[in-house]
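Onboarding guide, step 5: your first structure request.
Type a short instruction followed by the sequence, for example:

Predict the 3D structure of this protein.
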Amino acid sequence: MGQALIFDFYVLNFYMINIKRLFKSFAYASRGLVKIFREEQNLRIQTAIAAGVIMAAWYFKVSRIEWSVLILTITMVVLMETVNTAVELITDVLKPRINGYVKTIKDVMAAAVVISSIAAAVVGVIIFWPYLWALF
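The system replies with structure tokens like these:
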């Protein structure tokens, strides 16, 4: 009986949410998002394009599936830009003088962002082409 109470207490503790820690995590994440939004021009451009895509999707009354694909695609681009920024900050600590691979790492991450942006543009054309075609 005593062992069951200890186990139950452990399970309850494991699954209980520390609200204070949760809010701190969101505060840290928000601070990071604001920082990259202020410092990364590409993220601001991508956000403006995403806002345009969302307005177009609303105007054309796209289906739920199309909404889902658009939201996932926008998220992919923003996520890649965020990861790119994080990797750039980490590699800046190494400095190119210390490690010659730093430039290559930055170039590869920039390529990943470009690939995700091209994929997003293709998705946008696939989704919006029929709606745009119907206008003319």
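Each response can be followed by summary notes, for example: The CA atoms of residues 77 and 116 lie 6 Å apart.
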